[in-house]
């Protein structure tokens, strides 16, 4: 579990692109387009299967097992809500109870076996749901909901009970929501609201309430899936289903854990293909990985860092608070695609404008300086001493007459402007009322985004409640922070989906020749020596230095002559993880005598430390370049992950790394590098030449191919340092550690 109270079980060089894609082009399998059911090289699905949940949300028939109408009983309230919901959706209701003739005037059915038809949805209210689920399976029910708690959220015994329940469901073909879920799917949704809707997925019903309440602000909600413990139906199922619904404009999620990371990414990929934004709160940011990894890579990658990487790679927008979830999902559901990414801050106060402009710039938004011609036009209505370059300060008075609307229109007519943000720090009638009406009227005639921050702590003013909230074209916020978060997400989402190419379409389908070479080098359950690990890298075409493995001082001298001075000498053995700390590395050796002395010293240290050796490596010395680290580790949820960052002996101190979830393509690999804090070192600083970024990307893609093909047989890989040479000269793996699974 990932700390869940709901018990969710966790378990542009063409050459570089060709490597990642297995020398194939286009999303095809055996000469035909890729489709649901196709597998990648590791035997995993390439596309999400979309469950048919229509009869869950709009059933024709509903059975309530354990129905009650005895006042004061919890089941009675649930039965009443289900009866009301069934009437609203036009479903036939069958209360099931062995001793009651009727519930709320509706005749009871004594048992599941006596149901007069195959029901679409059965709601189980009894304490022990397993026998009932088995009966429902025999009755060919399509869906069941189990509210009962006491399963995986309670510990080992509950986990065992949940496994039995999941096994019964899997045998039956029945689909089940829960256990430990609630009535949120059967809430009363407003049907008088228009426009694209938000679909909601939560693992805690209470945490979905703020999003559900958006209906009171005029924002449509279409579905709510409370997934509970996810013994069967999981977040990924609802995500795939909602991504296909024409009425859904955005999907909002509150996640405590994920049942299966791969399934989630396949579902997120489906949403990205269709351009449906997914906004998620994922708790557990402070969780640290529980692995005891031998390599740097494993230590560098905590579980939450992998979640962050997975979300970024597939366009899931991660926010921290429920208020951000509300506002970001609402904007993304309703806003039209941006015409430009320029943002203008417009206010009646220079202080307000400057403050918000600072915050917007800090948030990564682009605030273009308006052209001199545009500024001159604005100064027709705004005094010349006020700033109109961006932010635009009108000084207050122009909003009280016809000038106010002309200013707004002039800003929105600028082709560089895609978003207008107007912060109103507090109501100041009648000027604020006139300003709000002008903003709403202008929003109705433009295809650009108009955002208003209504800063009043009261929120009962007619200008807010009636005019702003009455508009479907103005995005209204109560805080500047939430506004900027939502606008940034809106612009980023459309940039992402415009350029999106599904990595699953490019995933290799068949093992490479490298895979067959690598199989002979693996030693199940063992750590490989540096020499053996480098052979594994060679198998995948990753360059290593000239080197020889020797077992005598005389052989070391001969090897040094062949490799070429200066040389590096290192002890090589399967039980050595970090040689530098043990003094098992000697660098800059320039003579035969130094080589002989180094050989003796290395072997003496190994004997003293009781470290068995398979020999001593005499290596070419490579000095000019940027030290990086590239590695593979395994995440409990997402499987193999690839890490790249700045390397060397300080890698664990700097912790400047980025993570990718295979499969990914060249652009994602370059995005990983772009996110490094020390990226400038690769671009060349203080007179140093730029590093060979293409070569680094190529290594990252080759390593991900290795991770995909070898799977669990490669538990960890750590190439550190990978020396990235000056541009056009390649990259060399100077050291490597590999642990076989």
UniProtKB/TrEMBL annotation:
Pfam families associated with the record: ATP-grasp_5, CoA_binding_2, Succ_CoA_lig
Entry keywords, A to Z: ATP-binding, Ligase, Nucleotide-binding
Signal peptide start and end residues: none
ATP-grasp domain mapped to chain residues: 534-572
An MF annotation (GO) of this entry: ligase activity
PROSITE patterns the record matches: ATP_GRASP (PS50975)
InterPro entries: ATP-grasp (IPR011761), ATP_grasp_subdomain_1 (IPR013815), CoA-bd (IPR003781), NAD(P)-bd_dom_sf (IPR036291), Succ_CoA_lig_flav_dom (IPR032875), Succinyl-CoA_synth-like (IPR016102)
Protein's UniProt name: Acetate--CoA ligase family protein
Species the sequence originates in: Streptomyces olindensis
